[in-house]
Automatic annotation (TrEMBL):
GO terms for biological process: D-amino acid catabolic process. This is D-aminoacyl-tRNA deacylase. Belongs to the DTD family. A motif (Gly-cisPro motif, important for rejection of L-amino acids) lies at residues 130-131. Homodimer. Its EC number is 3.1.1.96, 3.1.1.-.
Amino acid sequence: MNHAQVTIDGTVFGKIGRGFMLLVGFGPDDGDEQLDYLVHKIVNLRVFEDENGKMNRGLNDVNGAILSISQFTLYANTQKGNRPSFTKAAKPAIAAPLYDRFNAKLAATGVHVETGQFGADMKVDLENDGPTTITFEK
């Protein structure tokens, strides 16, 4: 990804250049085991091109950053009817602290982390390079 930003109420809240924009959602049974796994995978993922055009470089190799956006709608269930159900998403009382811990764990690796605001109406702007989109789940 070349750059991304999140705007809340007309003000840029988080903005990065090269790196990863993460859409982050949690289920009710998620905890530190899942957070640790995801942080390790994300920080060590090699998807940036090397000098041979191969996906072989990670965030640290390209001095990349992370823009983390909370997104409970990732848990949308569309199997019945025409209106999505979000019952499989963690309730805010569970998801908000998980989101905060997730971002703190990412930052603790030394990667620069910008965020959105949990529960806010956010406008996200992204210039994807590729595009490459990967789903992580534990």
